[in-house]
Amino acid sequence: MSTKKWLIDPTHSEIGFKVKHMMFTNVTGKFQNYSASIETEGDDFENAKIEFSGAIDSITTGNTDRDAHLLSADFFDAEQFPEIKFEATSFKKIDEADFELKGNLTLHGVTKQVQLDTEFSGLMKDPWGNTKAGFIISGKINRKDWNLNWNAALETGGVLVSEEVRLNIELQFIKQ
């Protein structure tokens, strides 16, 4: 079987995250500049080689002041750590549509293993004859595991920004 290369279609993909603010509402954000690729044996994605990188300075939450704070040394320190990277160590099929994705996430100068739930949406041909594959990835990480420690205490108790970060990722890949 021959190795197939798949590249992300950024116009039909979104790398998003969600964090609780003041312990009761969520703030969402996303990366605007990123790349990702998958290498498979044929059209079977089990044990695929998966890589992702994103530019930290492309994070947007829809608020310029908040985005500037996220890029500062209080959070991501984009000047010192300009990139987030993920490299899969395993991609295991659970059932027809579900996979368990494990890999090394490098963020803020720290690399840790993460496990993410992945739904394979299937293969489809677009109107121009390209074969596309769709994936929905979700999971949670604790930002403090990557030394993203900034916070502020609230008068009523609790903290301004939760430690838990939920990942909401929708990906479309094009077979090369």
Automatic annotation (TrEMBL):
It comes from the Bacteria. Transmembrane segments: none annotated. Residues 5-174 form the Lipid/polyisoprenoid-binding YceI-like domain. Pfam families: YceI (PF04264). This is Lipid/polyisoprenoid-binding YceI-like domain-containing protein. It comes from Flavobacterium aquatile LMG 4008 = ATCC 11947. The lineage of its organism: Bacteria, Pseudomonadati, Bacteroidota, Flavobacteriia, Flavobacteriales.
